[in-house]
């Protein structure tokens, strides 16, 4: 049950962090025109004319969401592999974006690499601290 709860909490965290960073990015780099999000041509045109900062904020949202979600899932489930399902959620979102919007090659690659890198860092880049029985704290990592 702990594993399932950790993964669910990680996915919720990944989505919330992704949308929070994307919202801030939209405040900093707003689109210049109103677009109909259901029209792929308008979305592609708006994204093509968007500043590089807006594109980088999208990548930061994917990375940050996968990192935060992976960290939460890993810490709750106590399994390193639990960091990957939240990243898979954001990678599937990225794949949907790739199929819906024409993007430059560097952005296509980065949309897949960003959530994978976030999960990798969450699962293996941040050591877990454990408490050893009889001691207040420990320096051991798993």
Task: Please provide a written account of the structure.
There is one protein chain. The protein has helices at 2-28, 40-49, 52-77, 84-100, 105-125. It is mostly helical and 142 residues long. The chain has one domain (2-125). It is elongated. The mean pLDDT is 85.
Quickly describe the structure:
The chain has 5 helices and no strands. With 142 residues, it is mainly α.
Topology:
Blueprint: H1 2-28, H2 40-49, H3 52-77, H4 84-100, H5 105-125
Helix pairs in contact: 1-3, 1-4, 3-4, 3-5, 4-5
Key features?
142 residues, mainly alpha, 5 helices
Unreliable stretches, pLDDT < 50, 5 or more residues? none
Number of helices in the DSSP assignment:
5
The structure class reads mainly alpha
Radius of gyration computed on alpha carbons: 18 Å
Let me know the largest β-sheet. Answer: none
- E-strand count: 0
Q: Give the SSE string.
A: HHHHH
Global mean pLDDT: 85
Q: Strand content of the residues, in percent?
A: under 5%
Count of individual domains: 1
What general outline do the C-alpha atoms trace?
A: elongated
């Amino acid at each position: 049950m702990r594993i399932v709860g950790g993964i669910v909490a990680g996915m919720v965290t990944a989505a919330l962090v992704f949308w929070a960073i994307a919202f801030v990015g939209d405040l900093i780099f707003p689109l210049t025109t109103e677009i109909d999000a259901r029209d792929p041509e308008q979305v592609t045109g708006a994204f093509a004319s968007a500043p590089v900062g807006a594109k980088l904020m999208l990548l930061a949202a994917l990375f940050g969401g996968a990192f935060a979600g992976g960290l939460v899932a890993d810490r709750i489930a106590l399994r390193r592999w639990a960091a990957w399902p939240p990243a898979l959620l954001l990678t599937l979102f990225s794949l949907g974006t790739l199929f819906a919007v024409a993007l430059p090659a560097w952005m296509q690659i980065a949309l897949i690499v960003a959530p994978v890198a976030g999960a990798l860092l969450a699962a293996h880049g941040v050591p877990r601290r454990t408490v050893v029985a009889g001691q207040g704290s420990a320096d051991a990592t798993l």
